[in-house]
Design brief:
The structure holds 3 protein chains of 3 kinds. By secondary structure, chain B is mostly helical. Chain B contains 7 helices and 2 strands. In chain B, strands 1-2 form a two-stranded antiparallel ribbon. In chain B, helix 1 packs parallel to helix 7 and helix 3 packs antiparallel against helix 7. Chain B is elongated and about 60 Å long. Chain C folds into 2 domains: 61 residues; 38 residues, no CATH class. Classes of the chains: A mainly alpha, B mainly alpha, C mainly alpha. Chains in contact: A-B, A-C, B-C.
């Protein structure tokens, strides 16, 4: 429970950051914590690159005419925004950063099962990112992040193969991370750490890893086939020889729908950690939350056709997929109810991580409910390919996942760096993010419902007011992202030193020093308690 | 050590699971088109050489035998036997690739390679000329990805061979041999399915 | 770690696999209509099982490993099956066609 530790008698304990210095000790590390830091840096860079494209989109949409750029260039903006954000930010985000750092610690292990494969997966990620950046620099891709054929396979004149190769490579990184987590959780838990005592963050990452391993290979082969078709000027999606473009969509969405669960489950895991700590209460319905993570992972593979209701797919298939889409909402709803029940009669504190958790619960609920609207056949015919869809997925991806990521970063920052971030600025940024986000994306629900199509650089003039609001919101949101970047960096040198457990949280990761030593634990811990063994405490703490 | 062996084998099975889904995507697409264009697909059989296909299958099965015997030798600490079986496995693997290359050459000569700008002549059954190209795309892509995995496999075996020569394996540590063996057998299994699906589509094949 | 299967076991399995390969080849010469592909795939499935259980030693592996192996195949079936939910039902609608 320490505040600013200025005591000169305290020596800097050996930890994973100061153990070794020099670029070689970082680029050839096998330490999962250092690899997590490498990932944090890389995905932050990609996030801001994706953000630049978002800004370009919103600037163009300030006016109804397509006046900033022509439609081809605009197509490149939203394509690059999507590819970078989906494949190079959201998919790796929490698993490769917070997951890499904390899953081994939470189960009482020294590292992941395959530390060198962990490092390899980072290098592969960088390789994939290099191809994606090459595609951008060479002139961009305009197919949409969904690469629909036959435009992507035959008619587009942009750098599709380069981008597809980048995504293919990044997919391998994702597969290796998932494989590592699965084996780690099965084989490397400390004595006493039964499945029923695992922190829910571990369950969430485990379920995510299952999806990564089962789904990613299919998008890999799909994009490989598109690339081969472009290279050889003939292929299985070519309508001229009888190819079916809808088959591409089936293959693509077989992965890309479960992919959105890769993009949200880890965030849900973070929320379970935050809600318990900042309500000083054990989680309500542990086994339901754990089970619902697996449920989402499995049912998530049964719903992809809801992206294809109006494509010409069979009506009966649409019925099947619509029904299952209703089903997949149930485990998510269970989580939201259980988090709420956890907070009920808890001792709530409003530290920044908890603010992000509140934001997540509300915004994810809106995003999830609008997903149900979209899964309803009749409604989808009206709003598909409009801004309603865009608003829906940004509510879950940004209002959900990004907020969870920021909440997790704030929560675990003292552990990872040994420093406290400035709480005042952090609260302010959290509010900026929340306000900016809603101002950006709520109008888009209305715009979509009124009929503004997505992926168009121009729109009907009566939509301008809402579009301007949306762009204004985006500026606020952007500021809300930049400020934490600044104070996090600042805190590494000037922030007050954090103690081992500034939040007085349960969990093995808080039993070590901040930052942790390279091998995590002096001796292998023996676990005797259930997870979230919070008891009623009325003391105040750092905040 | 046992935990590391268990982790490594579990890890390899999880990786093979990803490979099942990778090839499975192609198998899925193939099945859809075969259902859409059954006669066009059947018409392609006369240009496939099922005897070569069967021979290739037999070659891979032998290589799986030598691989399994090699892993067995590693478990028993029999260094010479291990190295011998690894060599044989690689020889059979390379034999497979040679036969494959020969087949590809035959297809090229027959003008049945729609890739590379359309080295294609289907005048014998022009009503199927368009859709048959889909089958040939699958043929080249699927056997191509398979062959790529074989090449990687031979590379892995070479590495394992040199590790064995340096005396790195013993009764107590042979994990790399075990997991490489799993990979090799998997590549064999993929071919076991490719053979009937690509070579035996139509009925009453002529014996070459 | 695990028991070591005998050379005889391996050679026997190899012999069965090779025999089944040529059986597949010869059966394909006989016109059995729709059944040709069914038989060929059944034989292939059987061969795969032999390779998995004996050459890859899945028989001796833990239930967890068996679960992951089975899961892989099950997931591929899930992919194929759901593709067919679309393609088979297309001809239930006027104007569509499949099989």
């Amino acid at each position: 429970m320490s505040t600013a530790l200025q005591d000169p008698r305290v020596v800097e304990t050996p930890n994973y950051l100061n153990q070794e210095y020099g670029w070689r000790s970082w680029l050839f590390t096998k330490d999962h914590k250092r690899i997590a830091v490498l990932y944090i840096i890389s995905i932050t860079v990609m996030f801001f690159i994706g953000g630049i494209f978002a800004s370009l989109i919103r600037v163009e949409l300030l006016t109804p005419q397509g006046d900033l750029v022509n439609s081809d260039t605009y197509n490149k903006f939203f394509t690059m925004h999507g590819i970078v954000m989906v494949f190079f930010f959201l998919i790796p985000s929490i698993p490769a950063t917070l997951g890499n750092f904390f899953v081994p610690m939470m189960i009482g292990a020294k590292d992941l099962a395959f530390p060198r494969i962990n490092l390899l997966s980072w290098y592969i990620y960088i390789g994939g990112a290099a191809f994606a950046l090459a595609a951008i620099v060479l002139g961009g891709v305009d197919t949409g992040w969904t690469f629909y054929t036959p435009f992507s396979s035959t008619y587009s004149n942009t750098f599709v193969i380069t981008a597809a190769v980048g995504v293919f490579i990044a997919g391998f990184s994702s597969i290796l991370t998932g494989l590592n987590f699965i084996v780690t959780v099965h084989k490397m838990r400390a004595p006493g750490m039964t499945w029923g005592r695992l922190p829910l963050f571990v369950w969430a990452n485990y379920a995510t890893s299952l999806i990564q391993v089962l789904g990613t290979p299919v998008v890999a082969i799909t994009l490989a086939l598109v690339g081969l078709e472009r290279a050889f000027h003939i292929g299985i999606f070519d309508p001229a020889i009888g190819g079916d473009p809808i088959l591409f969509q089936h293959m693509f969405w077989f992965y890309s729908h479960p992919a959105v669960y890769i993009m949200i489950l880890p965030g849900m895991g973070v929320i379970s950690e935050l809600v318990t700590c900042f309500s000083r209460k054990g989680i309500f319905g542990y086994s339901f939350i754990a089970g619902s993570s697996l449920g989402i992972a499995i049912i998530g593979f049964l719903v992809w056709g809801h992206h294809m209701f109006v494509t010409g797919m069979s009506m009966y298939a649409s019925l099947y997929f619509s029904l299952l889409t209703m089903l997949v909402a149930v485990p998510s709803a269970i989580k939201v109810f259980n988090w709420t029940a956890t907070m009920f009669r808890g001792s709530i504190s409003f530290d920044t991580p908890m603010l992000y958790a509140f934001g997540f619960i509300g915004l994810f609920t809106i995003g999830g409910l609008t997903g149900l609207f979209l899964g309803t056949l009749g409604v989808d015919v009206h709003v598909t390919d409009t801004y309603f869809v865009v608003a829906h997925f940004h509510y879950v991806m940004v209002g959900g996942m990004v907020l969870a990521y920021l909440g997790g970063m704030h929560y675990w920052w003292p552990k990872m760096t040994g420093r406290l971030y400035p709480e005042g600025w952090a609260k302010f940024s959290a509010l900026l993010v929340f306000a900016g986000f809603n101002l950006t994306f709520f109008p888009q629900f209305i715009l979509g419902y009124l009929g503004q199509p997505r992926r168009y650089h121009a729109y009907s003039p009566e939509f301008q007011v809402l579009n301007v609001m949306s762009t204004a919101g985006a500026s606020v949101l952007g500021l809300g992202y930049i400020i934490p970047l600044i104070y996090f960096l600042w805190s590494m040198k000037y922030g007050p030193k954090a103690g081992n457990n500034p939040w007085r949280a349960t969990g093995l990761e808080w039993q070590t020093s901040s930052p942790p030593p390279t091998y995590n634990f002096e001796t292998t811990p023996i676990v005797t308690e259930e997870a979230y063994a919070y008891h009623d405490q009325k003391e105040t703490h750092v905040g | 050590m046992a935990q590391q062996f268990d982790s490594a084998t579990l890890g390899m099975w999880v990786f093979l699971l990803t490979e099942i889904m990778f090839f499975g995507g192609m198998f899925g697409a193939y099945t859809v088109y075969r259902g859409l264009y059954p006669e066009a697909f059947a018409s392609t059989s006369q240009y496939m050489n099922p005897l070569f296909g069967a021979m290739n299958t037999a070659v891979l099965i032998v290589s799986s035998l030598t691989m399994a015997l090699g892993v067995r030798a590693a478990r028993l600490g029999e260094q010479k036997a291990l190295q011998l079986f690894l060599i044989f496995t690689m020889i059979f693997g390379l034999a497979f690739l040679v036969i494959k290359a020969f087949e590809y050459h035959e297809h090229w000569v027959d003008m049945k390679v729609p890739l590379f700008g359309g080295h294609w002549d289907y005048s014998e059954a022009p009503q199927f000329a368009r859709q048959a190209q889909i089958l040939f795309c699958f043929y080249f892509f699927m056997t191509g990805f398979h062959a790529l995995h074989m090449v990687v496999g031979v590379g892995i075996m070479t590495t394992i061979f040199f590790m064995a020569r340096r005396g790195m394996f013993s009764k107590d540590y042979f994990t790399p041999v075990e997991v490489s063996g799993l990979y090799w057998h998997f590549v064999d299994i993929v071919w076991i399915f490719l053979f009937p699906l690509l070579y035996l589509i139509g009925n009453a094949r002529k014996l070459v | 770690m695990h028991s070591v299967p005998s050379v005889r076991t391996y050679v026997t399995i190899w012999a069965i696999l090779t025999f089944m390969t040529f059986a597949t080849y010869y059966i394909a010469q006989i016109d059995l209509g729709q059944w040709n592909i069914v038989i060929a795939l059944l034989i292939a499935f059987f061969k795969m099982s032999l390779v998995i259980f004996f050459f890859m030693n899945l028989k001796a592996e833990s239930p967890l490993t068996k679960l992951f192996a089975a899961g892989g195949f099950f997931w591929m079936i899930l992919l194929l099956g759901q593709f067919f939910v679309d393609y088979i039902s297309r001809d239930w609608m006027p104007g569509g066609k499949m099989w």
